[in-house]
Amino acid sequence: MNWAAEATIRGAIANLRDAGALEKRSTDHASNSVATVLTPAGEEIQTVPEALEVWLAQCPEGPIQIDNPHVKVAVKALAEGWSSTLMRLLATSPLTLTELSDLIHDVSYPALERRINWMRATGQISPLPKEGRGTRYAPTSWLGRAIAPLAVAGRCERRHIDDAPPITDVEIETSFLLALPLVDLPRRARGSCVLVSRTDPVIGEDPDPQVAGVAVEVSKGEIVSSTVTIDSEPTTWVIGTSDVWLNAVIDGNFEHLRIGGTNPRLALDLVKGIHCSLFTKR
User: What is the pLDDT of residue 44?
Assistant: First the structure.
């Protein structure tokens, strides 16, 4: 690692130790010698940059190498779009900058404009043909594929960081809305289904389990609509905790999801489709 100063390397190692990714162990070479090794948390943390690198390689403008200066812009745009409700709103319907500003009250207009410009410049959103005043923006399929590294990072946090932030209804809905357009379904698939995840409890709020998700309509193997309005008595459903959903989407482990209703085959097709579109197609 002759490209980094020794002080930088020491600082990075100290930070990784604090995060539980590295630990010191005695070696057999000398009584007072120690080695720095990866912990189980460190092993899993490695999967996060790996998933991010796969996503960057799928950039529609051409693969972005991990050492490319544009990586910082692309990742920053993704992170800031995810941390606000920006991606959730655009996943629901195309909107102009002015419309987004009216709906997002905790981000200033200049900051929101900057995020839109970053996401547009890196191919995460695209402008639609003008209709009236203002340019409407919609998410690209590449932004949908960003759910893969976000899911891997989220699961890693939940497994190894004690005070990891809760998974919110906005994050659950955004993930489903962005991933579903990528799904390939068999021609026979048709009907309606809801995909639902339990949300993490928030201190000081209703202790009863809350849920979030989407309702999906399918016709002749095509998803014709997906909305966050969920019928209280759906005909077909898939439900699980956020951890169960993360395992299903990342690993294809569907056995702990609860699938029921009149058309369980459609439900399983949708779940498998999300997994395959994000983690088996390269």
Answer: 72
Question: How is residue 45 written in tokens?
Answer: 């943390």
Q: Position 102: which residue type?
A: D
* Co-location of 126 and 69 in the same domain: yes
pLDDT mean by block of 10 residues, the chain; 282 residues: 59 63 60 63 79 92 84 90 90 95 94 94 92 90 96 90 84 96 96 92 60 95 92 90 96 95 97 95 53
Evaluate whether residue 163 is within a structural domain: no
pTM (two decimals)? 0.85
Is residue 151 included in any domain, yes or no? no
Residue type, 9: I
Shared-domain flag, residues 275 and 176: yes
Count other Cβ atoms within 10 Å, centred on residue 77: 25
Give the CATH number for residue 69. Answer: 1.10.10.10
Its domain, for residue 23, covers: 6-39
pLDDT given for residue 83 in this prediction? 83
Do 179 and 275 sit in the same domain of this protein? Answer: yes
Structure tokens at 15: 């930070």
Give bridge partners of residue 217 from the DSSP assignment: 192, 225
CB atoms within 10 A of CB 88: 23
Q: Give kind and range of the element (H or E) at residue 95.
A: strand 95-96
pLDDT at 1: 42
Q: Is residue 158 part of a domain?
A: no
Identify the pLDDT of residue 49: 87
Q: Is residue 227 part of a domain?
A: yes
Q: Are residues 35 and 57 in the same domain?
A: no
Q: What separation in angstroms does the CA of 255 have from each of 6, 116, 249?
A: 47, 39, 12
